[in-house]
Design goal:
Strand content: 25-35%
Largest sheet: 6 strands, antiparallel
CATH class of the largest domain: Alpha Beta
Shape: elongated
CATH topology of the largest domain: Ribosomal Protein S8, Chain: A, domain 1
CATH architecture of the largest domain: 2-Layer Sandwich
Structural class: alpha+beta
């Protein structure tokens, strides 16, 4: 398979991944690729060029940060639109514990990237299984600074407030 010559401004993705980024710098065997919130240095041999599509929505490439890719990472400032569009509360009603934990993990990561510090988790009262699992998870989460049910007199036990670092 012949390698297509890559250049600055090309839209690329890492082999086997779906997130699309733009080459912002090239140096022989490596390229610096800007994804939505991160720039990553990647070997050119691990990149594939994708057709340029105006207005392509880019997603945060968690997979690009895996140990299999030797990279240096620098976080970028997201635009104000992304910050204001982010919902600082998440409603977990109807989710199973594994679904809720996955959703909360991704939500906290996104909040941290965007610079949000105060978050509201709505898990409901129910039997308390989801509340217990969520609070236990949050207590062990590296970004959690404070976990409270500060408005329990109004909201009851169905809401947990989270402050992240």
């Amino acid at each position: 398979m012949s390698q297509v010559a890559l250049q600055r401004g090309d839209e690329v993705k890492i082999n086997g991944q779906e997130s699309i980024g733009e080459i912002v710098w090239l140096n022989g065997k490596y390229a610096k690729v800007a994804f939505q919130f991160v720039e990553i240095s990647v070997s050119l041999s691990k990149l594939e060029k994708v057709p340029s599509i105006i207005g392509t929505a880019r997603t945060f490439p968690k997979e690009a940060l895996s140990a299999s890719i030797q990279s240096s990472t620098r976080f970028l400032n997201p635009d104000a639109g992304a910050f204001s569009a982010f919902k600082t509360e998440i409603d977990l009603h109807g989710m199973t514990v594994p679904e809720a934990l996955s959703a909360v993990e991704q939500w906290i990561d996104r909040a941290s990237l965007l610079g949000h510090k105060h978050l509201k988790v709505i898990h409901g009262k129910g039997s308390g299984v989801l509340r217990s699992a969520i609070r236990s998870y949050l207590q062990s989460h590296g970004l959690a600074r404070r976990i409270t049910n500060r408005f329990s007199d109004v909201e009851g036990e169905g809401v947990t407030w989270l402050e992240i670092k």
